[in-house]
Design brief:
380 residues, mainly alpha, Growth Hormone, Chain: A, 2 domains, 2 strands, globular
Length: 380
């Protein structure tokens, strides 16, 4: 059965981020529920983060022909489901470590490869990225809220049920055939050599782009890791904290939906400037106050600090040729969306006990050099 290509990709994003909306906020709760202490939970989550970085960088980059993207996505979805089902087999620590590594290794490349497919279809059939990608953000909001409700009603085991259901739905959706298959030339089938990678990463526009987005996305580490703690310390309930997080994702959805009209004539360089300005305002607000009206403004600015930066990255990557799209997408996902945030999370963990809310000034400082690193290549 064939379905429209944009719908195929939207379904892939929706089911992936439904599963991720279960995994990211609640997996530590499941690990605690099966009897692990905080030290072992930390080690497992850390091992998973390393596996995510490795999977995004090494597995995704080995796909050199866009015409093979659909097949690889289906294979990775199947392997992710097998690993998710592996959590039912046993809960002793070594087994969980192996399954955690396997799940993250296969699950993480699905996003850069889906984004590479989106970039391919942007060039091939003029598909609008933002309205397709917003379904992933919507799914994250739905699954996070649903998981919280079901955990309260049925215990922590609801987390694993929902995770498996989400990954199974993702595989099922990918088994449909998109109306337009991605196209690639025989030249793109050749695997990139080390010289190809060096040539790409030494290009002035490319290394400036990667360093810029690594700083801007890495600046979200304090928000992802410590905003909930800081706001609760300021006296807000867990439900208010949850609403603030949801507000940021809702703003993200709105910008994704309207991006085609809002930013049609904007270059990646211009979008990065707008994102940097929004980020500076946002992190400055979070560092300066915990007053609820200003926190609401700061959360609305998530659509600028994260969403517009991601749209700029997709526009930059889509302007590349052939297999470079996949290579650059895998590096972007590994470095900016994985490695940069991982490193800054460790740094924030060391600084937060001393700086508390002032940690967000450090995040604002990270953004400043990014404003001057924006790539200057013509047409980007």
């Amino acid at each position: 059965m064939a379905i429209r290509s944009a719908w195929w990709l939207a379904l892939g994003y929706f089911t992936y981020f439904f599963a991720y909306g279960v995994w990211l906020p609640f997996w530590a709760v499941w690990l605690k529920g099966v009897g692990l202490d905080a030290e072992k939970i930390g080690l497992l989550l850390g091992a998973g983060m390393v596996a995510r970085f490795t999977g995004s960088l090494l597995i995704a980059s080995r796909v050199t022909n866009p015409s093979r993207l659909i097949t690889v996505l289906r294979l990775l979805a199947g392997l992710s489901l097998l690993c998710a089902l592996g959590f039912w087999i046993g809960t002793f620590w070594v087994w969980l470590l192996l399954v955690m590594i396997g799940f993250n290794l296969f699950f993480s490349p699905l996003v850069p490869l889906s984004d590479a497919l989106a970039a391919t279809w942007q060039r091939q059939i003029a598909m609008a990225y933002g309205p397709v990608r917003l379904w992933g953000s919507l799914a994250f909001v739905i699954s996070s809220a649903l998981t919280g409700v079901l955990v309260n009603a049925f215990s922590y085991q609801a987390i694993l049920w929902l995770l498996c259901a989400g990954v199974a739905a993702m595989l099922g959706g990918m088994l449909f055939r998109p109306a337009v298959m991605p196209q690639g030339s025989e030249k793109q089938v050749e695997r990139a050599s080390w010289q190809d990678w060096q040539r790409l990463l030494k290009e002035n526009a490319v290394w400036r782009f990667l360093l810029c987005v690594m700083l801007m996305q890495g600046a979200h580490a304090a928000y992802y890791g410590f905003s909930a703690i800081w706001w609760q310390d300021a006296g807000y309930s867990a439900s208010v904290v949850g609403y603030l997080w949801s507000l940021g994702v809702v703003a993200e959805i709105i910008v994704f939906a309207a991006s085609g009209k809002l930013f049609r004539r904007w270059t990646a360089r211009d979008l990065l400037l707008l994102s940097g300005i929004c980020a500076l305002i946002r992190w400055s607000l979070l560092a300066s106050t915990t007053a609820l009206p200003l926190l609401v403004i700061a959360q609305i600015l998530h659509c600028g600090s994260f969403t517009i930066c991601h749209l700029a990255a997709m526009r930059f990557i889509a302007a590349r040729e052939g297999a470079e799209v996949i290579r650059l997408q895998s590096v972007y996902s590994a470095v900016a969306m994985g490695g940069g945030i991982a490193v800054m999370t460790v740094v924030c963990g060391l600084l937060f006990p001393h700086l508390h809310g002032n940690i967000f000034w450090v995040m604002a400082l990270l953004v400043v050099p990014a404003l001057f690193l924006r790539p200057k290549a013509a047409g980007l």
